[in-house]
């Protein structure tokens, strides 16, 4: 029996509503598989924990997580209780950084039967490779003076290692897919880092003569996600550009409640973390109508990560079938509750 030990952090808001159903789905996957078992351990770290303890996770929290094969996280953030930069940097971004989860892969594809807001979604199928450890997400900088003399400086960090790593990951991924990599740049406006980004991209692409490439400024690229998403295969982007692009990726599928993500540790020293693209959705929290598909598709990425490709593909087929049959939450036009969707996914998995 292959046992996978998973640290579960439901987190805030709808994270609490979509993580338990996704765990039910994973348990059903294990049951159907026969040779697979998930050992779940839950950690109550979120903004309420911060209010009680003054920290998002205990000092030995990372040490506790490091004993697991993976982290399965819902969402972090409750701006009514804790400023967003404190909660995110105290938990989500802390785990990404300390566990060297340097790559964030975020697929988006057209689902048959799911109403995309695009008139002609053209069967798109893309993956954004988001640099996940540096770039615009940096604590370097500060504030000085007050009033009209007030100054704020926020530095972006682009290292040779970080940029090259993200790009090579994208090219390797493209070799297993449609053989195309697009670079998200902004070298017309950002004076130092983006021309550097372009030069590294031009260097790396020479190592992959069989991969076709394109490079677009992020503004135009974002528009192309809407007007012609079918032209993309793999897109490599800095931390911030990748963040923004992947919400658009979710939106063109039909809802950001569907979009999955995987924060990948490449060196094997720490666990990887699986958490959907969306946040804690305070506007719908408590109603039981959060779309669980993002969290469940994220579970599929976790299955892939552990080599369970066939089970992962089966799960994605089942998700697609359930959506096609209209068993879905209001964000994608359905009338179902969160658990009705996950229960139907479990029911169908059992018939396979
Ligand atoms: N990775 C993360 O944990 C993460 C990601 C994004 C935002 N956040 C945090 O979440 C909080 C809210 O942020 P936001 O409102 O900008 O983004 P959000 O992703 O939480 O919500 C944006 C919109 O999408 C909808 N939505 C999101 N997930 C959905 C789902 N599963 N089903 C149906 N609808 C869904 C919401 O209702 C909302 O209208 C903030 O505290 C923010 O910092 C965390
Ligand atoms: O900015 C972040 O990375 C947090 C969230 O928006 C995400 O996409 O994971
Ligand atoms: K999330
Ligand atoms: Mn985001």
Highlighted features:
binds nicotinamide-adenine-dinucleotide; Isopropylmalate Dehydrogenase; 19% strand; 2 domains; 11 helices; alpha/beta; binds D-malate; two-stranded antiparallel ribbon; TTC_DH; 352 residues; binds potassium ion; binds manganese (II) ion
Overview of the structural elements:
The chain has 352 residues and is an alpha/beta fold. It has two domains: 1-101 and 262-352, Isopropylmalate Dehydrogenase (3-Layer(aba) Sandwich), CATH 3.40.718; 116-141 and 155-253, 3-Layer(aba) Sandwich (Isopropylmalate Dehydrogenase). It is built from eleven helices and twelve strands. The strands form two sheets. Strands 2-1-3-12-11-4-5-10-8-9 form a ten-stranded mixed β-sheet, sandwiched between helices. A two-stranded antiparallel ribbon has the order 6-7. A hairpin with a 7-residue loop joins β11 (262-264) and β12. α1 crosses α9 (293-305), α9 runs antiparallel to α10 and α10 packs across α11 (338-350). The longest helix is centred in the first third of the chain and has 19 residues, at 15-33. The protein is globular. It starts with a strand and ends with a helix. The mean pLDDT is 98. Bound molecules: nicotinamide-adenine-dinucleotide, D-malate, potassium ion (K) and manganese (II) ion (MN).
């Amino acid at each position: 029996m292959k046992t996978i030990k998973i640290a579960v952090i439901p987190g805030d808001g709808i994270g609490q509503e979509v993580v338990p159903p996704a765990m039910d789905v994973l348990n059903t996957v294990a049951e159907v598989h026969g040779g697979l078992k998930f050992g779940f351990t839950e950690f109550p770290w979120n903004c309420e924990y911060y209010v009680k303890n003054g920290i998002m996770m205990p000092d030995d929290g990372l040490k506790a997580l490091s004993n697991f094969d993976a982290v399965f996280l819902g969402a972090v953030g409750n701006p009514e209780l804790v400023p967003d930069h404190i909660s995110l940097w105290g938990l989500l971004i802390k785990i990404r950084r300390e566990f060297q989860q340097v790559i964030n892969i975020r697929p988006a594809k057209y689902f048959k039967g799911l109403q995309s807001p695009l008139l002609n979604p053209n069967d798109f199928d893309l993956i954004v490779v988001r640099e996940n450890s540096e770039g615009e997400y940096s604590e370097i900088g500060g504030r000085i003076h007050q009033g009209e003399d007030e100054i704020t400086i926020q530095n972006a960090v682009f290292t040779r290692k970080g940029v090259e790593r993200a790009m090579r990951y994208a090219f390797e991924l493209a070799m297993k897919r449609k053989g195309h990599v697009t670079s998200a740049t902004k070298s017309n406006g950002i004076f130092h880092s983006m021309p550097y980004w372009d030069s590294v991209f031009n260097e790396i692409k020479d190592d992959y003569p069989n991969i076709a490439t394109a490079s677009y400024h992020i503004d135009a690229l974002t528009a192309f996600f809407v007007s012609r998403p079918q032209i993309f295969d793999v897109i490599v982007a800095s931390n911030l550009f990748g963040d923004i692009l992947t919400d658009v990726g979710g939106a063109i599928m039909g809802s950001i409640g569907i979009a999955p993500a995987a924060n990948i540790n490449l060196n094997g020293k720490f666990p990887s973390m699986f958490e959907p693209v969306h946040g804690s959705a305070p506007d719908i929290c408590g109603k039981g109508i959060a779309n669980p598909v993002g969290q469940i598709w994220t579970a599929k990425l976790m299955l892939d990560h552990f080599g369970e490709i066939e089970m992962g593909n089966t799960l994605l087929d089942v998700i697609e079938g359930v959506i096609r049959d209209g068993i879905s939450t209001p964000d994608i036009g359905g009338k179902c509750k969160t658990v009705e969707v996950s229960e139907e996914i479990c029911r169908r998995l059992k018939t396979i």
